[in-house]
Specification:
The chain has about 200 residues and is mainly α. The chain contains eleven helices and no strands.
Length: about 200
């Protein structure tokens, strides 16, 4: 029963953490809108797989990170830099005119999902903070076997969330054509404000 509990906690933690509009779920939706759902699912699978090592690092080395908080702080600052870079990148995509559309192989979307998920530097601090909190309340056991079941749940939660955004892309096309046409601009603005918000949180801490 404890193993099932850890799967559920991992699922809910990943699903809830990725639910607000962010770098990965919005890019999964954008991929489904601009290419097709298959590409969106491949992106989602690649992004979800990277959650496995991220969650493992956060939980397995929780005690080490607790003794060296400066590591998490540096990772968080690096995450802010990545958000600013992504904001500039999507703004550049939105401004680019008369560009030739190139065919991209389906496999590339899988690796693109992995790459963008690796750039999500805020994932490790997120799993570290909440797993430590749950451990203190005796809801989570930070031992290897339990961690593995937690990671399984985190992967399933992340993939389910990304898949949900991909499936919602149809609604986006039918009911929000303006958003679909200007999605790169909206992503640029989103990443910019996420970076500012994260930076303010870091300085307040």
């Amino acid at each position: 029963m404890d193993f099932v509990q850890h799967v559920l906690i991992g699922f809910l933690m990943a699903f809830a953490g990725l639910l607000p509009p962010g770098m990965l779920n919005m890019t999964a939706m954008k991929t489904a809108v601009s290419v097709n759902k298959k590409a969106g699912f491949l992106f989602s699978l690649g992004a979800a797989l990277v959650v496995i090592p991220q969650a493992f690092i956060a939980l397995y080395f929780a005690n080490y990170f607790a003794q060296h908080p400066e590591i998490i702080e540096n990772i968080s600052f690096l995450g802010v830099v990545v958000l600013f870079l992504l904001s500039g990148f999507f703004f550049w995509l939105a401004r680019r005119k008369n560009s030739k559309e190139s065919k991209v192989q389906n496999g590339n979307f899988f690796f693109m999902g992995m790459l963008m998920s690796m750039l999500n530097m805020l994932a490790i601090p997120y799993y570290l903070v909440y797993s430590t909190l749950l451990e203190a309340r005796d809801l989570l056991i930070l031992e290897r076997n339990y961690i593995l079941f937690f990671i399984l749940g985190a992967f399933l939660g992340a993939f389910s969330l990304f898949t949900l955004f991909v499936l919602l892309s149809d609604v986006l096309i039918k009911r929000a054509k303006y958003i679909a046409r200007n999605l790169n601009y909206l992503l640029s603005i989103l990443f910019f404000f996420l970076a500012i918000f994260t930076l303010i949180k870091l300085f307040n801490n």
